[in-house]
């Protein structure tokens, strides 16, 4: 009779899970957005600044970025978006802001911007946007 270790198959390799980056300098907003996504089965990673996002990096790009326009000292959300675009690492981006007057000065739709949302964020709309990006990402991975 074969021994157990000879018949056991190796554990299935877990497919890399899709995830969403949340970049906001306000810890309460960052945590709330991450919890909202998590409660709906969406994996997130949080970043406190543009520099934090750039420094920590990721081995796999997020499906999309939920990005505050006004980050504390350092790069703004728009500047992070531009940096990622110039580095060839642009991701679909959902900008959030408490100041709607900045929207006309932000990136254009051709810059992979999904939406501009005002704080307090409409949770259902945010989730719908993230889910749409996740579906698109899944479809792209299935094709390639």
Structure, described:
This protein has 144 residues and is α/β, with parallel strands linked by helices. It has one domain: Rossmann fold (3-Layer(aba) Sandwich). The protein contains five helices and five strands. The protein has a five-stranded parallel sheet. Strand 3, helix 4 and strand 4 form a beta-alpha-beta unit. The termini are far apart. The N terminus is likely disordered.
The gyration radius over C-alpha positions equals: 18 Å
Show unreliable segments. Answer: 1-15
Portion in helices: 25-40%
Reported by name, the CATH topology is: Rossmann fold
Biggest beta sheet attributes: 5 strands, parallel
CATH superfamily: Response regulator
If helices are DSSP runs of H or I spanning 4 or more residues, what is the number of helices?
A: 5
Order of helices and strands: HEHEHEHEEH
Oligomeric state of the chains in view:
single chain
By helix and strand content, what is the structural category?
A: alpha/beta
Widest sheet: strand ordering = 2-1-3-4-5
Could you tell me how far the N terminus lies from the C terminus, measured between alpha carbons in angstroms? 43 Å
Averaging pLDDT over every residue, what do you get? 85
- Envelope shape: globular
Kindly state the number of beta strands: 5
CATH class: Alpha Beta
Question: What is the CATH architecture term?
Answer: 3-Layer(aba) Sandwich
What's the short story on this structure?
The chain has five helices and five strands; from the N terminus they run αβαβαβαββα. It is an alpha/beta fold and 144 residues long.
